[in-house]
Amino acid sequence: LQDEKTFIEELLNPKTQNVAFQKLVQLYQKPLYNHIRNIVIDHDDANDVLQNTFIKVYQYLANFKGESKLFSWIYRIATNESLTFINNKAKKNHISNEEVSQKAINNLEADVYFNGNEIQLKLQKAIAQLPEKQQLVFKMKYFEELKYEEISEILGTSVGALKASYHLATKKIEEFVKRN
Amino acid sequence: MNDFKLENNKIETGFTVPEGYFDLLSDTILNKVSQNKPKVIPLWQRKKTILMAVAATVVIAISIPIISIYNNSTNDLSPEIENYLSYNTNITDADIVELLDDETIENILLFPFRQQKKLNKNYLTTILNK
């Protein structure tokens, strides 16, 4: 925690800011990319959202109060950016958020940046059937292997509710795969 | 598939990225961030802007009564209002004639219709303003 405090100070000090921010990008780019890609599915969209996320992180650093961990604060921005992206896409095409995810999944087979086998594709299709919140919880727990406590801090949902959500999602996915 | 359990085998996402994507990404982001750096406005400059805004407000505030006084000083009525008044008033032509002196009446008789109308109008305005 002391390390994090020092790191935040480096990020805010104009003299050390650039080096510290570079370190932050190196540290977070891969896990954050995976997090965003899991939500928006398409690589180009994930790339746009990831870049916007880092720009926002940089711009709002001065407002970071240290009430939450830097990790959960950054993940929260990334999640908000991803969900806003899907919302905007849904509004533009006059469809629901779930339909946006469905469409993205349908495009996966032709995507050059997806090399999943049959079961991987089926899993993605099964996830896309779920309500948005359950999708998010499942992806963060199953693919990203985040702890419930971490997901709780990022999404502002209780651990109990997250466990219930994940359990329900798992059951629905397994049923979907068995059925298809 | 009948015994499918998610926890039995970990299934990966199957997502990939273009080659060298992460090597270039940090440079792209750092470039973008330097373009989006929030501008630091020195305090004295901000003070100057506030002073200018205050001065502009004072000038506008002072000029409002001046403009309204200037606008009220004119007695000219728009033709619409004058027409409305001449048709919707109890003042008869006889009343107007009574208020006119001989010279004016003579003028009305001597001058063409247009001018006559103008004279009438002026008198009507004078009467109404009394």
Name the overall outline of chain B.
elongated
Q: How big a fraction of the residues of chain B is strand?
A: under 5%
Number of strands of chain A: 0
Report the radius of gyration of chain A as a whole number of Å.
17 Å
Distance between the termini of chain A: 47 Å
**Quaternary organisation of the protein chains:** heterodimer
Structural class of chain B: mainly alpha
Low-confidence stretches of chain B: none
Number of helices of chain B: 6
Q: Element order, helices and strands of chain B?
A: HHHHHH
Largest sheet of chain B at a glance? none
Helix share, percent of chain B: 55-70%
Q: What does the main sheet of chain A amount to?
A: none
Count of β-strands of chain B: 0
Low-confidence runs of at least 5 consecutive residues of chain A: none
Strand content of chain A: under 5%
Strand pairing plus helix content of chain A: what structural class?
A: mainly alpha
> What gap, in angstroms, lies between the N and C termini of chain B?
102 Å
Task: Please explain how this structure is put together.
The complex is a heterodimer of chains A (180) and B (130). Chain A is mainly α. Chain A has nine helices and no strands. Chain A has helices at 2-12, 17-40, 43-60, 70-93, 97-106, 118-128, 132-143, 148-155, 159-179. In chain A, helix 2 packs across helix 4 (70-93) and helix 4 (70-93) crosses helix 5. Chain B has 130 residues and is mostly helical. Chain B has helices at residues 21-35, 43-72, 79-87, 93-99, 102-110, 113-129. Classes of the chains: A mainly alpha (180), B mainly alpha (130). The A-B interface holds A 18, 21-22, 25-26, 29-30, 33-34, 37-38, 43, 47, 50-51, 54-55, 58-59, 108, 113-117, 119-121, 123-124, 142-143, 170, 173-174, 177-178, 180 and B 1-2, 4-6, 11-18, 21-22, 25-26, 28-30, 32-33, 36, 38.
